[in-house]
């Protein structure tokens, strides 16, 4: 069960007319949902991706043991004009060294207040105030570092964090998106796929990602979470009779991954496309359904609400590793194909991770650089342990473990 810890002051006044406080479900749910709805309305005539949080504004951090959500109010009417979410977890920083890390996500400021000018021609700075207040909570609860992720083209977000809040550009993992088609994908010949029990999966992950960055210490909690659909291993069928998972000895070649579903977290929907684009996308879907043997690259029905499967813990070894990893990705695609409403299979990996080259994806839907920015909160904590500053250390491994709870 997720438990929140050490809340911030219930109503600290920061700036003229702006109050930042902890989210109260009974008081704030309707106001937060309305504000976020206004944020999701894109420019007229341009497509936009909107999210439905299924009536739970705090769902994106609820699965972390330490989490919080703050809201910003403005004016006598106490209108909610901003929100931010945060959590704290313990992760590796490389070489099996752990660090207490905070993660910031879901920062939103109402469009009508992003550039509001008040007396003396000063901006309200709602976004900055929300970040600063959340950082106070993170520091109070022992976080040594805090990071956030954003699209590398999101200049407003990058400027806020790097220029105004003193974050450093840190890592640029790649996000790969594969639409779920109407046809099934072939798994390849001579390949067996088995589901691993959570204990064995945990053992394999702790070994494979020991030197990586961002590997969560509570991986066991993730693997046993209800949103986790399982951990799967692909191996050549000829090795299957000889492989006994109880021995801990792995096959010469294998690939593993876990599948996380957002079905119970949020639904996505594309709005604002032209009728021609809509017609072309739906026509490709119809043709694929009628003639599945042609394996047409059909576009999923993203114009109604859909969810995604997030693939994490992707790792391969041996000369057949790439082929086995492709087979696993096809297996996950077929899982989504059988789950009506799943629109895409998504994976995020490090730029230099070998699996990056073999994960099937559509380039136009993917993101070559998802920018992660980081900031040190407690100065002197590394020096006490005789460690160098993580911000200035070279990565000890090309692997980055992307926590599925972060999406």
What do you see in this structure?
The model is unreliable at 1-16 and 115-122 (pLDDT under 50). It is globular, with a radius of gyration of 22 Å. It has two domains: 18-172 and 371-376, Aminopeptidase (3-Layer(aba) Sandwich), CATH 3.40.630.30; 176-368, Aminopeptidase. The strands form four sheets. Strands 1, 3, 4, 5, 8, 9, 12 and 18 form an eight-stranded mixed sheet that branches. The protein is of the alpha+beta class and 407 residues long. It is built from eight helices and 18 strands. The longest helix has 18 residues, at 321-338. Residues 18-210 form the N-acetyltransferase domain. Pfam families: Acetyltransf_1. InterPro entries: Acyl_CoA_acyltransferase, GNAT_dom, Plant_NAT. This is N-acetyltransferase domain-containing protein. One of its GO terms (molecular function) is acyltransferase activity, transferring groups other than amino-acyl groups.
List the main descriptive attributes of the protein structure presented here.
18 strands, 2 domains, disordered N terminus, eight-stranded mixed beta sheet, N-acetyltransferase domain-containing protein, alpha+beta, GNAT_dom, Acyl_CoA_acyltransferase, 407 residues, 8 helices, six-stranded mixed beta sheet, Aminopeptidase, acyltransferase activity, transferring groups other than amino-acyl groups, 23% helix
